[in-house]
């Protein structure tokens, strides 16, 4: 899996079954001292099955396992407990299953 967002502090790994994706977030919200980070994710252009998942803090990063459809892209943005967002400057983060 190619990670186009590592410079933004976001890394992905894909388990073998490809029904979930592991996300490690150490982006601008984490670097700004956030104590809580949520991953907001949805599938495809319309953000189908949108969900908000609280990430677990591990040292200076936040981690979560997110559902990942084999047939559609996964769109992501991140927010902290004060509703500050990291959405890739309005472009969101997109992971393709390929």
Q: What's this model, at a glance?
A:
This protein is mainly β.
Number of strands: 9
Task: Briefly note the structural class of the backbone.
Answer: mainly beta
Question: Count the helices. How many?
Answer: 1
Helix fraction bin: under 10%
* Spatial separation of the terminal alpha carbons: 7 Å
What is the molecular shape? globular
Key features of this structure:
1 helix; mainly beta; 4-stranded antiparallel sheet; globular; 98 residues
Structure notes:
The chain is mainly beta and 98 residues long. It is built from 1 helix and 9 strands. Strands 3, 4, 7, 8 and 9 form a 5-stranded antiparallel β-sheet that branches. It is globular and about 35 Å long. The N and C termini lie close together (7 Å). The mean pLDDT is 89.
Outline the secondary-structure elements:
Layout: E1 10-13, E2 20-25, H1 28-31, E3 37-43, E4 48-54, E5 56-58, E6 61-67, E7 74-80, E8 85-86, E9 93-95
Antiparallel strand pairs: 1-2, 2-6, 3-4, 3-7, 5-6, 7-8, 7-9
